Amino acid sequence: MAAKALRQRNRRGSRQDANNVPAGGEVRPAKEEKISEDSSKSTETGPELISRGGQVWAPEGSTAFKCLLSARFCAALLSNISDCDETFNYWEPMHYLLYGTGMQTWEYSPLYAIRSYAYLWLHALPACLHAHVLQTNKVLVFYFVRCVLAFCCCVCELYFYKAVCKKFGLHVGRLMLAFLVLSTGMFCSSAAFLPSSFCMYTTLVAMTGWFQDSTALAVMGVAAGAIVGWPFSVLIGIPIAFDLLVIKREWKSFTIWSAVAVLLLLVPLVAVDSLFYGKLVIAPLNILLYNVFTPHGPDLYGTEPWHFYFTNGVLNFNLVQCWQLHFIQSEFKGQLPQPYAPGPLATQIIPANMNDQNLEEPSRYVDVKQCHYLVDLETDEETPLEPRYSSNKEEWSVIAFKPFLQAS
User: Fold this and answer.
1) What is the pLDDT, as a whole number, of residue 46?
2) CA 20 to 30 Å from 168, out of 9, 34, 278, 317?
3) Are strands 103-104 and 338-339 parallel, antiparallel or unpaired?
């Protein structure tokens, strides 16, 4: 009975009673219980944990947030626009929505309608607040939008980091945080105004929901990326759907939240796009049909072998302000954008001289003699269509000269 009473007192954590007991087997259960209690308490403290076998540590949420936010704001302020689509398919149309002028690409022609104005308005709304309420200039609006994108990316990464720490442990979470902060790919994509970057945000949200056993968050994350961003990102949701439907058998919850996603995301998107195009438009469906079921869509801009993404994963302010932007003929043989038509219904007008095969449209060019300023790239090669304008001192004078890193 004495031994039994002693063990009960040890469970209450009485160190004095434990010290009065002779060394022997009776004390070991109490010691094991105390270690177990200490371990459980340490586990509940969150990202920081210290064990007797060694130190296991990962940054707290606030520390991780500061690291991520610093890296993302650096990207917003310093990274270049590396994709021409970002300039002409997103910044230019949003400029039209904000200021009434902008270049229109064939993707925004009502004849093809494979871009979403609803996606543009997600970015145009905060830009409109900054531009018209605060009365700031366009350069500040540009940086403001990029900083908003960087902040959104940072928040998604933070919750993903916490979910990884909880699901896979602090070692994995710590390494993943280091890769996120130092990744070249994240630096380029975090503040980019592109549907692929938006899908990256939603994928982080979806994975967070999956790791935390939140069906609603997982389904809504995948749906947002596929409906609002890029429809092909739905493939990322296949492992999530397999886990929810085949392994966990959560058919009811999956079906309900899929229906909610359609109502909350697809219906407003179709309504906004149909308003701007002047007809019923389902932009994600048009993108899918063009890229998969047309003879030229999949191969128009080049294809890569299956191992491209693995190879590329290892490697992992081009803004010109002028009076009016025009193009002169050069060795580039693709299709260039043209200004939106005048009037409030310009987004509903089918523009002339556009095609969906990226064929050259000579109507885009003006005579170089009509130009007051010229932005030119000088290379080692000189052709009749691309002469070295800076050497023609009689007609041109160099105002500014900047080095250019040519990737090819």
Assistant:
1) 46
2) 34
3) antiparallel
Judged against a pLDDT cut of 60, whether residue 19 lies above it is answered with no
Show the 3-state SS of 333-385.
CCCCCEECCCCCCHHHCCCCCCCCCCCCCHHHECCHHHCCCCCCCCCCCCCCC
Kind plus residue range of the DSSP H or E element containing 148: helix 138-168
Do the Cβ atoms of 348 and 278 come closer than 8 Å?
yes
The alpha carbon dihedral of 212, 214, 217, 221 has a sign of positive
Q: 104 phi and psi, to 5 degrees?
A: -110, 130
What would the DSSP string read from start to end of 88-104?
IIIIHHHHHHHHS--EE
Q: Can you tell me the distance from the alpha carbon of 135 to that of 141, in angstroms, rounded to the nearest whole number?
A: 10
Residue 57 — φ and ψ, nearest 5°? -140, 145
Length of the chain, in residues: 408
DSSP-assigned beta bridge partners for residue 54: 51
List Cβ neighbours of 208 (8 Å cut-off, separation of 6 or more).
156, 159, 160, 162, 163, 214, 217, 221
User: For 363-378, what is the mean pLDDT?
Assistant: 87
- Collapse the DSSP code of 48 into the 3-class scheme (helix H, G, I; strand E, B; otherwise coil) and give the result: strand
From the centroid of its chain, how far is CA 261?
20
Whole-prediction pTM:
0.70
